[in-house]
């Protein structure tokens, strides 16, 4: 490399962070020199966990990946993604694709983002075969109904979900 420092942003709600997200993080680290995990506040999606809890979960998972720790940081954001990219000095937006159905939406978003800031490129990483069908939404649904989510999330995240669902049941 000739003195360039490639900064990437991997944005998402991460509610919760899954093994699929971790796979994209590890692979994105091979593409950029510094990766910022942008945890979107996104109250419109009605997240199960607060922004602070989601940031904490992502940090815990990164701590379990010591080889990545030096080049990855976690920040929350509540702004337009392109604004966040400029604020962080990112030149690359990293997006994971699980299936063809993700592509149309992500393609449109990449096009809009390119119109907003042509200096920031979007890089798509295909989910690894074993993670293609993992989504935070499905993990929450399976976990809430008492299903085994251990193959989709870390034991730490699985425990957080179990605790949250138990608290919800007690509140009912």
Report on the architecture of this protein:
The protein has a single domain (7-171), classed as Rossmann fold (3-Layer(aba) Sandwich), CATH 3.40.50. It has 172 residues and is an alpha/beta fold. It starts with 6 loop residues before the first strand and ends with a helix. The chain has a 5-stranded parallel sheet, with helices on both faces. 43% of the residues lie in helices and 18% in strands.
Report the structural category: alpha/beta
Strand neighbour order, sheet with most strands? 3-2-1-4-5
Largest sheet: 5 strands, parallel
Number of domains: 1
| CATH architectural label | 3-Layer(aba) Sandwich
Percent helix range: 40-55%
- Full CATH superfamily name: HUPs
CATH topological fold name: Rossmann fold
Uncertain runs: none
General form: globular
Radius of gyration: 16 Å
Number of strands: 5
Oligomer: single chain
List the helices and strands and how they pair.
Elements: E1 7-12, H1 19-28, E2 34-40, H2 51-63, E3 72-77, H3 81-88, E4 92-97, H4 100-116, E5 121-126, H5 136-144, H6 155-171
Parallel strand pairs: 1-2, 1-4, 2-3, 4-5
Could you provide a short overview of the structure?
With 172 residues, the protein is of the alpha/beta class. The protein has one domain (7-171): HUPs (Rossmann fold, 3-Layer(aba) Sandwich).
List keywords for this structure.
alpha/beta, 172 residues, 5-stranded parallel beta sheet, Rossmann fold, single chain, globular, 43% helix
């Amino acid at each position: 490399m000739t003195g360039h420092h490639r900064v990437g942003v991997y944005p998402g709600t991460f509610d919760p962070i899954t093994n699929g997200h971790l796979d994209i993080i590890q692979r994105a680290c091979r593409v950029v020199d510094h990766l910022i995990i942008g945890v979107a506040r996104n109250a419109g999606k009605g997240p199960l966990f607060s922004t602070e809890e989601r940031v904490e979960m992502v940090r815990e998972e990164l701590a379990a990946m010591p080889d990545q720790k030096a080049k990855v940081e976690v920040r929350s954001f509540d702004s337009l993604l392109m604004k966040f990219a400029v604020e962080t000095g990112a030149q690359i937006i990293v997006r994971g694709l699980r299936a063809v159905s993700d592509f149309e939406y992500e393609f449109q978003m990449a096009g809009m983002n390119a119109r907003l800031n042509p200096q920031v490129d979007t890089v798509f990483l295909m989910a690894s075969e074993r993670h293609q069908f993992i989504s935070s939404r499905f993990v929450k649904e399976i976990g809430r109904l008492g299903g085994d989510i251990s193959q989709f999330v870390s034991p730490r995240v699985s425990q957080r979900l179990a605790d949250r669902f138990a608290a919800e049941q007690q509140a009912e």
